Amino acid sequence: MRTARIASPEALGQILREARLRNGLTQSELSERMGVSKRYIIEVEQGKPTKAVERLFDYMRETGVDIYGQLRDVTNRG
Predict the structure, then answer these.
(1) How much is the pTM?
(2) Domain-by-domain residue ranges, the chain?
(3) Structural contact between residues 1 and 70, judged by C-beta atoms closer than 8 angstroms
């Protein structure tokens, strides 16, 4: 398991991409599972900021909150 600080949309995208790859999923497979477009997955992984994501990171900066992500295998979910 690897822990990474998530301080930007780009860092969030990177850790989500690593998690997807670690679990052997293509962008198409993940988008189908989630019920979203493949374009959405691509943009999230590229760190394209959305208003909601940008506001979240603004909130974190203003309040001094840090978030961390842990990469773990989720392929064996029940």
Answers:
(1) 0.75
(2) 2-71
(3) yes
